[in-house]
Specification:
There is one protein chain. Strands 5-6-7-8 form a four-stranded antiparallel β-sheet. Strands 9-10-11 form a three-stranded antiparallel β-sheet. The chain has helices at residues 47-73, 99-103, 165-176, 185-208, 215-233, 237-252, and strands at residues 4-5, 12-13, 18-20, 26-28, 78-80, 83-86, 91-96, 110-115, 119-130, 136-146, 154-157. The chain has six helices and eleven strands. The protein folds into three domains: 1-35; 37-176, no CATH class; 182-234. By secondary structure, it is an alpha+beta fold. Helix 4 (185-208) packs antiparallel against helix 5. Helices cover 41% and strands 22% of the residues. The structure holds zinc ion. Zinc ion is lined by residues 6, 8-9, 11, 27-28, 31-32. Zinc ion binds next to strand 4.
């Protein structure tokens, strides 16, 4: 088969070194594919999303080393396998750490950093993989899904070596103020009833004004939508503010 040219670095690549992308372009495994996280699905990604992921890793690695590593030493970071959560800065990360470096007081992990507020789904999942001797191996993993995120926006990872999947789900429910357990249904209900009430008010306003979207209606409908979001996803305003502050500070360094 013919040699290809890497769409990122321009290197000429032989068959073994080729990674074909979903849009038919090729990148080299050695220098370019190795930039990404192992969770990133190159086969089903096009070049723009690969580039977005590589930006995500370059930036994320810097943020992780600057903001997460010091916090790990002061125990301000909650860890679930390769997932690290720092609520005081509103950020969380998927990181590949190297303990060999940590022993010597240094940490150079590769990381992708997310706003905690963008985490829309976190749940246990069972995946089946075929082992080399043809047996089916079942593994429990956690799936994370992020909104407003280019590049790697969803991934699964094993957290079982640190804490249970259940503890991980509980942690995020608590962080977002979402009560998914039966014992705590009261709070969720109160939020939902408030949201439904506000929605009703918005509709009532719309009827009064002859169905035209006046400023009041739009604003009331916006409030109702916000409340519904709070009911489903919890109140994330403090996490958003913390992330905004951290990322603005990071960007200002240039
Ligand atoms: Zn390349």
């Amino acid at each position: 088969m013919a040699k290809q040219t890497c769409a990122i670095c321009g290197a000429e690549i032989n068959l073994i070194q080729q990674q074909k992308l979903a849009d038919g372009s090729y990148i080299c495994r050695k220098n370019c594919k190795s930039v990404g996280m192992k969770q990133f699905d190159y086969v089903h990604a096009d070049l723009p999303s690969v580039l977005a992921h590589h930006d995500q890793v370059n930036k994320g690695t810097k943020i992780f080393n600057q903001y997460f590593v010091p916090r790990m030493k002061t125990k301000q970071v909650e860890r679930f396998g390769d997932v690290y959560v720092a609520p005081d800065i509103g950020l969380m990360a998927l990181a590949k750490t190297d303990y060999k470096f940590f022993i010597f007081g240094k940490y150079y992990p590769k990381a992708v950093v997310y706003r905690i507020a963008d985490l829309k789904d976190y749940d246990e999942e069972m995946i089946e993989t075929k082992t080399s001797d043809g047996k089916i191996q079942k593994d429990n993993v956690m799936r994370f899904f992020f909104a407003n995120t280019a590049g790697l926006y969803t991934f699964t990872t094993k957290v079982g070596n640190t804490k249970s999947d259940e503890a991980c789900v509980k942690y995020f429910n608590k962080l977002f103020g979402i009560q998914k357990t039966i014992g705590n249904m009261g709070n969720t209900w109160k939020n939902q009833i408030n949201a439904i009430g506000a929605m009703g008010k918005a509709i009532g306003e719309a009827v009064k004004s002859g169905g035209e979207a006046t400023e009041n209606v739009v604003s009331a409908a916006g409030d109702a939508a916000d409340m519904l979001n709070v009911a489903i996803y919890g109140d994330r305003s403090a996490l958003i503010a913390a992330a905004d502050k951290t990322l603005a500070e990071f960007e200002a360094q240039g």
